[in-house]
Amino acid sequence: MSRTCLVTGAASGIGKATAARLAQRGHTVLRADLRDGDIRADLSTPDGRAALVARARELTGGRLDAVVSCAGVAHFDPLTVRVNHFGAVATLDGLRPLLAAGTDPRAVVVGSIDSVHPTDPAIVAAALAGDEEAATAAARAAVDRGEGHLVYSSSKAAIARWVRRAAVTAEWAGAGVPLNAVAPGVVLTPLTRPLLDDPDLRALVERSVPMPLHGHARPEQIAPLIDWLVSPENTLVTGQVVFADGGADATLRGDGVW
Ligand code: NAI
After folding, report:
1. C-alpha dihedral, 81 to 82 to 87 to 93, nearest 10°
2. What pTM does this model have?
3. Close Cβ partners of 159 (under 8 Å, ≥ 6 residues apart)
4. Under DSSP, is residue 244 helix (H, G, I), strand (E, B) or coil?
5. In the chain, N or C: fewer CB atoms in 10 Å?
6. Does the structure show a pLDDT above 90 at 44?
């Protein structure tokens, strides 16, 4: 059955591959991005987030069957927490009423293996409290003390924890809407190219994200998992952070998480 799906970050990388896969399966796909697509919106700002929701409502008549929140950046900068956490939460919360009007509605946000790396507790706490200015200030402080790398991992840890909390609430599970995160390892996209092109940074990435199964991934290897999680076949999986990481999480955290 053809579904109406919205994908953010659809102009590049994992979002682009996911949108292509959903379209290839016969679904109607609304592509949202900063710079291209059916909906152009800057998810780092309240105005851009509101524009995404308003335009989606116009284009769909107020009904969506699937939302994939994929837009993200990996800068050593507070912008990263604005887009990766607050942009994603605004996408999912803002479009939830459209999902509630859809058929077999499902949502996925793209997290990251980086969520298991060290984080800045102040950024994570402020993000989970929904305090964007405090999260931005904490991110700025991390950058200023030379720990800008913590901003990305913190943004991804926060969105993972938000998914765990939100998925089981009346608004999501109670309304019959599975909500999950997919956490990739290293995927070959414009986001990782600068890291992998530099021999020293590449060695660092390989140490911090070991992928014993198949090595670094292509976006097309992530899309099928997202496709299934937002399909009507997914009736029980919710509140999960599903690692699509070639074994990185199992290598890094072993069996200690149980
Ligand atoms: P990408 O750079 O290829 O694509 C990201 C897309 O998000 C771009 O089209 C960009 O224009 C859009 N975007 C960025 N800021 C935006 C904003 N303010 N408003 C609207 N759209 C915006 O990157 P990639 O690798 O496909 O990343 C997609 C998601 O996957 C991100 O959330 C990223 O953190 C996550 N991820 C990527 C991994 C990788 O190794 N490439 C690993 C783990 C997670």
Report:
1. 80
2. 0.98
3. 84, 85, 88, 89, 109, 111, 115, 127, 181
4. strand
5. C
6. yes
Whether 253 sits among the annotated catalytic residues: the reply is: no
What pLDDT band is residue 1 in, cutting at 50, 70 and 90? confident
Sign of CA dihedral 159, 71, 33, 29: negative
Cβ-based neighbour number of residue 23 at 10 Å: 14
Quote the ligand 1 centre to 70 CA distance (angstroms). Answer: 6
CA distances, 93 to each of 15, 163, 188 (Å) = 19, 11, 29
In angstroms, what is the span from residue 258 Cα to ligand 1's centroid?
A: 30
The neighbour count for residue 203, using CB atoms within 10 Å, is: 10
Beta bridge partners of 4: 28
Query: Over 90: is that where the pLDDT of 7 sits?
Result: yes
Residue nearest to atom 24 of ligand 1 (CA): 13
**CA distances to 24, 132, 158 from 11, in Å:** 16, 26, 24
For the chain, domains (ranges, CATH) are: 4-115+158-243 (3.40.50.720)
Which residue's alpha carbon is at the smallest distance from atom 41 of ligand 1?
Answer: 187
